[in-house]
Design brief:
343 residues, alpha/beta, TIM Barrel, 7-stranded parallel sheet, two-stranded antiparallel ribbon, 16 helices
Length: 343
């Protein structure tokens, strides 16, 4: 029998709603922290297949989730392109920021698959050790989000440097995007060839773009990546998560070529049902802080989401990733609530 997550993404009927959670392998799990303590730094953690395999499998073993997303990071792409990437405790990612478009010449995607071979090795190993009903998920960041880190040098509140490229040096940003589109598509294809049955594209900062810029710097490059991946692996579902994209979700659902759109917690459920589900499978969208709260507030909202969206193609997830303070027992209760739900 086809896996429930794959059936949902393909719009097929399902006997129960599938659930997986963004950042399901992470700091809220004590077993994750035990493995993490053995890694010298975060990037080396991502490039250690044995560790990546173990932490990818931990939430599947503990909660009976329907998907296993490989433990990695979106910033392996700039690292493989030749940009210096690091992670500092309490600060997050720190990159040697691109000073201007002239710096793009120093980047290259030659050898990308060799550099990221540990990721593909981990995917293959996880795939061989997953329960038969669990789907293997690969992922990558979208060009706009990855470029934000490459140009800003880390996280940003106003994206001033990135937007100065977009508005003041669009030809330079376009050259960077050409490189990123090719690299991301190749990375996703390599993950599929290693064993990923579904891939997700994260555009975490899509919501900071005004309308015309969204078209140019989020929708178009994502659509090109989807087209390239589908050209090689037409049967593999692709999910796109353009976080906080508001009304632009409709454009992703109807125009990107993706099979599913993952929605954040601010998206009205009736809009998702009446507009988005007519174009694609919908994935989402419980507020991660309700998962922290747990109990009846969490279950009540989970049932409301299910009652509204489970009549169409739907995958239960959060509106963003699990936060570190989440009690693992609440995750177990949520998975049970979703799996036990019936129309």
């Amino acid at each position: 029998m086809t896996k429930s997550l794959l059936r949902a993404l393909k719009g097929e009927p399902q006997d129960r709603v599938p659930i997986w959670l963004m950042r399901q392998a992470g700091r809220y799990l004590p077993e994750y922290m035990e493995v993490r303590s053995k890694a010298p730094d975060f990037l080396k953690f991502c490039y250690s297949p044995d560790m990546a395999v173990e932490v990818t499998l931990q939430p599947v073993r503990r909660f009976g989730l329907d998907g296993a997303i490989i433990f990695s990071d979106i910033l392996v792409i700039p690292d493989a392109l030749g940009q210096k990437v690091g992670f500092e405790p309490g600060r997050g990612p720190v990159l040697e920021a691109l000073p201007g478009p002239e710096a793009i010449a120093a980047l290259s995607r030659e050898g990308l698959r060799e550099d990221l071979a540990p990721v593909y090795q981990a995917i293959g190993e996880v795939s061989r050790n997953l329960p038969a009903e669990v789907t293997m998920i690969g992922f990558a960041g979208a060009p706009w989000t990855i470029a934000s880190y490459m140009i800003e040098g880390g996280s940003s509140k106003d994206f001033a440097k990135l937007k100065s490229w977009a508005y003041g040096a669009p030809e330079g940003l376009a050259r960077l995007f050409d490189l990123l589109v090719a690299a991301i598509a190749d990375h996703l294809c390599a993950q599929i060839e290693a064993g990923a049955e579904v891939v997700q594209i994260f555009d975490s900062w899509a919501g900071v773009l005004p309308e015309q810029a969204f078209e140019a710097w989020s929708l178009r490059p994502i659509s090109e990546i989807v087209s390239r991946v589908k050209g090689v692996h037409p049967g593999v579902p692709i999910i796109v998560f353009p976080n906080r994209a508001a009304f632009y979700y409709q454009r992703i659902a109807s125009s990107s070529g993706a099979d599913a759109v993952s929605i954040d917690a601010t998206v009205p459920l009736e809009y998702a049902r009446d507009v988005l589900q007519k174009a694609a499978c919908v994935q989402g969208n419980l507020d991660p802080m309700l998962l922290v709260q747990g109990g009846e507030p969490m279950k009540r909202e989970a049932r409301r989401i299910l009652d509204t969206l489970a009549g169409g193609p739907f995958v239960f997830n959060l509106g963003h990733g699990i936060v570190p303070q989440t009690p693992p027992d609440h995750v177990a209760a949520l998975v049970e609530e979703v799996h036990n739900w019936r129309a």
